[in-house]
């Protein structure tokens, strides 16, 4: 049964028959669509609720039901956001690294699809990576948790004999079994062998990676490391590496070398007027960031993002990583 709010003298003619019966033990998420659909079609604002076994009888407001549902959803998102941020924090503790890593991240919503990692896999071997999951919100965040789980498992095993190429292929093969058809994960991975003083960069469908180093004359030079491999989750990385002889950008570790990773949310951020930040401004920004000291990098990134977007909504998650040797 359903009822509109009526006075104490209202007749039963004002009571409307409900077209369905609900099980009071059902979750509110299951009940809400039926209730709201009936409320719209029959212009009903309140429902009479009856539980036979306990003889309970009352009137439930559709508005209050929806308010409670939003409250529960908001609480769940808060918990999900806390879990995601805690995972990111544990996978990006660089205090004991022999080089500097600055990480700046802002999610467009409570949970997001950007993921980053900076971990020591084994003695003198470090993994720094930026990933961007296709999709938004909760569905994308679930895949970032999967990424976090994979890397956490790696650190619990002996990874000393795992080469950078093997790691990238293994990650792609694992994600192929998890990522739904039509989805993918772009990623840029920096594998540092600090003892051998070498750096390998694998760009799997991600935004351009920028490498900066001063030449012998003291002038800064920037190399753009474009994606040479397909995104993760499609099971195509191994074939791409072996078939086309494309794989990592390899370079020696030299003092002053800087590497920048960023998600496309940085280039896609928009001003109050809807103007996109774009590739040209992005490259110019990193050109200036290279000149700053390591302690100012995070502030410069935040200042740039805040000044550009102003009061506009953030259309996508933003992650920026600045690595300095």
Oligomer: single chain
- Helix residue percentage: 25-40%
Strand arrangement, largest sheet? 5-14-13-10-11
Supply the helix-strand structural class: alpha+beta
In DSSP terms (H or I, runs of 4 or more residues), the helix count works out at: 8
What is the makeup of the main sheet? 5 strands, antiparallel
Strand content: 25-35%
Low-confidence runs: 1-10
Rg over alpha carbons: 26 Å
Order of helices and strands: EEHEEHEEEHHEEEEHEEHHHE
For the secondary structure, the number of strands is 14
The termini sit apart by: 71 Å
* Average pLDDT score: 86
Q: Shape from CA axes?
A: elongated
Any overview of this molecule?
The chain has 325 residues and is of the alpha+beta class. Helices cover 35% and strands 26% of the residues. It has helices at 28-42, 62-90, 137-155, 164-176, 237-243, 264-268, 278-289, 297-309; strands spanning 2-3, 15-16, 46-51, 56-61, 100-106, 114-122, 125-133, 185-193, 198-204, 209-214, 220-225, 249-252, 258-262, 318-324. Strand 6 and strand 7 form a beta hairpin. The protein is elongated. The termini are far apart.
Summarize the structure.
The chain has 325 residues and is α+β, with helices and mostly antiparallel strands.
What does the secondary structure layout of this molecule look like, with pairings?
Blueprint: E1 2-3, E2 15-16, H1 28-42, E3 46-51, E4 56-61, H2 62-90, E5 100-106, E6 114-122, E7 125-133, H3 137-155, H4 164-176, E8 185-193, E9 198-204, E10 209-214, E11 220-225, H5 237-243, E12 249-252, E13 258-262, H6 264-268, H7 278-289, H8 297-309, E14 318-324
Antiparallel strand pairs: 1-2, 1-3, 3-4, 5-14, 6-7, 7-8, 8-9, 9-12, 10-11, 10-13, 13-14
Helix pairs in contact: 1-2, 2-3
């Amino acid at each position: 049964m359903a009822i509109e709010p009526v006075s104490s003298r209202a007749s039963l003619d004002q009571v409307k028959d409900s077209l369905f019966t609900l099980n009071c033990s059902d979750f509110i998420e299951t009940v809400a669509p039926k209730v709201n659909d009936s409320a719209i079609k029959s212009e009903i604002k309140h429902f009479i609720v009856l539980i036979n076994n306990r003889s309970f009888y009352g009137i439930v407001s559709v508005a209050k039901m929806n308010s409670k549902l939003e409250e529960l959803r908001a609480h769940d998102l808060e918990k999900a956001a806390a879990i995601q941020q805690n995972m990111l924090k544990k996978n990006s503790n660089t205090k004991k690294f022999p080089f500097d890593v600055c990480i700046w991240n802002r999610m467009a919503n409570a949970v997001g699809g950007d993921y980053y990692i900076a971990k020591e896999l084994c003695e003198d071997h470090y993994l720094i990576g930026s990933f961007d999951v296709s999709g938004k919100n909760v569905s994308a965040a679930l895949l970032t948790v999967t990424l976090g789980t994979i890397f956490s498992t790696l650190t619990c095993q002996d990874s000393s004999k795992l080469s950078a190429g093997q790691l990238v292929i293994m990650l792609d093969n694992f994600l192929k079994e998890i990522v739904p058809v039509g989805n993918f994960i772009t990623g840029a991975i920096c594998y540092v062998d600090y003892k051998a003083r070498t750096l390998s960069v694998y760009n799997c469908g991600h935004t351009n990676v920028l490498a900066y180093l001063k030449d012998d004359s003291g002038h800064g030079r920037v190399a753009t490391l474009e994606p040479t491999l397909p995104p993760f989750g499609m099971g195509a990385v191994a074939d791409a590496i072996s078939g086309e002889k494309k794989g990592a950008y390899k370079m020696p570790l030299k003092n002053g070398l800087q590497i920048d990773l960023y998600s496309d949310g940085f280039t896609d951020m928009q001003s109050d007027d809807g103007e996109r930040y774009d590739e040209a401004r992005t490259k110019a920004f990193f050109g200036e960031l290279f000149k700053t000291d390591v302690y100012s990098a995070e502030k410069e990134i935040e200042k740039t993002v805040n000044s550009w977007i102003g009061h506009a909504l953030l259309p996508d998650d933003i992650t920026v990583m600045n690595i300095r040797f």
